[in-house]
Design goal:
- The chain contains seven helices and three strands; from the N terminus they run ααβββααααα.
- It is mainly alpha-helical and about 220 residues long.
- It has one domain (about 15-225).
- Helix 2 (about 40-50) runs parallel beside helix 4, helix 4 (about 85-105) crosses helix 7 (about 185-225) and helix 6 runs antiparallel to helix 7.
- It is elongated.
- This is Zinc metallopeptidase.
- GO terms for molecular function: peptidase activity.
- It comes from Bacillus aquiflavi.
Length: about 220
């Protein structure tokens, strides 16, 4: 019964977070901002206000595929947010520029996350293979190695949280100080940013739960010997 509850949680939590962010985005993408600035203009205004003239703003395909690329110094906004005049578009654009500001200011957690990328990528690809083989062969060494690789991927997920929350805080500061939104629009803007943050919280929570499950499995193997 416990396993059924556990697997239900790891399915329900991410779905709930995704529904939350999609619901908030859909709702506030229909609400025009008072400034009527499209997302691309919001991003450019914040970048210029912070002296980030070398960072470009580009349109990209997909839905909610917005991101900041530190390698090319580019803020990429999905078409709806690039052209959109809504509160949601302004919030998303400002959030991605928040990452560009972090990059400019050498934000410690962002640097740490970048350093973890190759290790986390290797860990996420190898961990499940090692863990499954370790379980099938009842090999404690393989299971432990898989857990170590998984821990690296989980650490990346956990470090992502302060990076995302900090970018959202920077976004709120910028859209308020630059007059992109009015005081009565702050609540709606925060709802969009908080809903997006929930997806990262959910992903980190699930990753930690999975790691703990395999750690307990490893401890159980040791006790059986």
């Amino acid at each position: 019964m416990g396993f059924l509850i556990y697997f239900a949680l790891i399915i329900i939590i991410p779905l709930w977070a995704q529904m939350n962010v999609k619901g908030a985005y859909k709702k506030f993408s229909q609400v025009p901002s008072s400034s009527q600035m499209p997302g691309a203009e919001v991003a450019r205004k914040i970048l210029d206000a912070n002296g980030l003239y070398d960072v470009t703003v580009e349109e990209t395909g997909g839905v909610l595929s917005d991101h900041y690329d530190p390698r090319s110094k580019t803020v990429r906004l999905s078409s709806n947010n690039y052209h959109g005049h809504s509160i949601a578009s302004a919030a998303v654009a400002a959030h991605e520029v928040g990452h560009a500001i972090q990059d400019q200011q050498d934000y410690a957690f962002l640097r740490f996350r970048h350093a973890l990328v190759p290790i986390a990528s290797l860990g996420s690809n190898l961990s499940w293979i090692l863990i499954l083989v370790g379980i099938i062969l009842t090999s404690q060494n393989l299971l432990l190695l898989g857990i170590i690789f998984m821990a690296a991927a989980v650490l990346f997920q956990v470090v992502t949280l302060p990076v995302e929350f900090n970018a959202s805080n920077r976004a709120m500061d910028q859209v308020i100080s630059l007059g992109i939104i009015r005081n009565d629009e702050e609540r709606e803007t925060k709802k969009v940013l908080n809903a997006a943050a929930l997806t990262y919280v959910a992903a980190a929570a699930i990753a930690v739960l999975e790691l703990l499950r395999f750690i307990l499995m490893f401890i159980g193997m040791n006790q059986d010997d």
